[in-house]
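Page 47, continued from p. 46.
Same chain as before, 381 aa.
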Amino acid sequence: MSSLPFGRLYWKFLTFFFLAQLSAVIGIGLAIWAVKPDSDFDRPPPPAHLGSPERVPGLRPPPEGPPRRDLSPGPFRPGAPRPPVAHLLIGAVVSLVFAALLASYVARPIRRLREALRAAAGGQLAPGLAASMGRRNDELTDLCRDFDHMAGQLASLMEGQRRLLYDVSHELRSPLARLTAVIGLIRQQPDRLEDCLVRLERESERMDRLLSELLTLSRLESGMVEHVDEPVDVAEVLGDVISDAGPQAMQAGCVLVFDREGTSPAWVKGDAELLHRVFDNLLRNALTHAASGKWVRLSVAENDGSVCVRVEDRGPGVLSSETEQIFKPFYRSAHSADANGHGLGLVIARQIVENHGGRIAAENRSEGGLCFSVFLPSTAL
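Result:
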């Protein structure tokens, strides 16, 4: 039954529109025919000045007063005209043509949308459905535009997943190759076992850190992280971050500077642990790239309904074309000094900030170095 064409939307529209118009044509035609005056019955009486008709012997004279009229319905009067069959047929044909055009106008974009969905199911996500609608500007065209937007988003996500898979395989291939080399070295030189075990431990830790960061990023992007919406004092979180990063700052020979606007708390709503990870990633990134003997500054201020945190360093900075690229997975700047990093810290930081309804940006400082700015919606207690 599903293969029959009469169940399709086009035929349903065609049938409904045709029956509606045909009923209207027949109804109007019959109404006009029913009330059409009959010349024999509706003829007015003769004028009074012509006098009374002569009386014929043996015949009953006509009654006085106006002539009687047959009160039976018009179509059933004796001698009434026949129904206008030819006009009704012409109206039916015209109704059929207009119903077919209207049904095609409605069903055509739905048919194209169905074809586009089939193509998308096969992996062809090229947008362009709305352009095929021409000058139409109705709800079906809006639906086609929404489909194009969805197809573009899906194509972007699929491309990102393919690129991420390639990058992950590349990142895992290097430590695996080094592990294989160390195992071969142990077999060739058993006397260097202790040294090789240290290298194996270092490589395994690096792989574990990579997989942990990938798992965190995947959970953040998929929304699997438990949503926590509690008041957090950003200034207090920054104080903890600076305290934790103190040993690394001493090792790098850098001075940590904390600028705080006022003494009142800077409240936001969110997860204190995740926000701690954001600022910790930014601070350690700044310490890694800052020159020895220079400072790294953290500042927090509240204005225009948001809390702004800035992390500035006096390192080499990045190219102006890289201020957005550094937030992509596994991307390393040409000036990167972190050989042990995987290029996921900034990606995780951006995802956490966006999950909190904020945004993060990077820009080069005019005096040299890089500045990260984090904007989070503030809340009042």
